[in-house]
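Purpose: get a first structural picture of the assembly so the mutagenesis plan has something to point at.
Setup: two entries, given in the order below. No constraints added.
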Amino acid sequence: AQTVTQSQPEMSVQEAETVTLSCTYDTSENNYYLFWYKQPPSRQMILVIRQEAYKQQNATENRFSVNFQKAAKSFSLKISDSQLGDTAMYFCAFRPQTSGSRLTFGEGTQLTVNP
Amino acid sequence: NAGVTQTPKFRVLKTGQSMTLLCAQDMNHEYMYWYRQDPGMGLRLIHYSVGEGTTAKGEVPDGYNVSRLKKQNFLLGLESAAPSQTSVYFCASSQGLAVYNEQFFGPGTRLTVL
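Result (structure tokens, whole complex):
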């Protein structure tokens, strides 16, 4: 079974600054995918960024980037130039490549961007 | 496209009552999922479907049943609601299993069982 752990229940950052959210996971799978989802107060789940485990290059989407350390089973999210609209709950999620389509989510990190 | 829609958005039940949550998607996706979200926890998979007429158990299936009679619809049923089923329920859909086949989520249904 897979587990995903987000050890930071809450974080805050000043507008325009950079913040990093942590995520670790445990799995015996070798091929898998990792995701970061954003859930603003509207409750809508929005995919932020995705990473394939076989790719060594870290994924980047505009202001969002990841630091994927496969050996350490770590998958952190860096948000650069934080904006007020980034205020949301952020979930890290794991999906095996071959074992069906289940997503396993972490507990979430509530990020608040302060003006 | 409306994407993934859920009906109703809110519901209050008494213990022992039954209800059905409806999820509809207009993206012709093969896969559909039901999750629940409880405070301090991430989403947990209840049941899922890999195609019309198929269903499978997820991580927390007890107390729920599902049906996928039409490709675009995925129903979640509670036969005898319990206070432990108070939660926010999310439906999602995806085209396949490749990494680029992301799961698209509905807006959620907040269910309270008294």
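The interface with chain A takes residues 31, 33, 40-45, 48, 50, 56, 58-59, 88, 90, 92, 94, 97, 99-100, 102-103, 105, 107-108 of chain B (CB under 8 Å).
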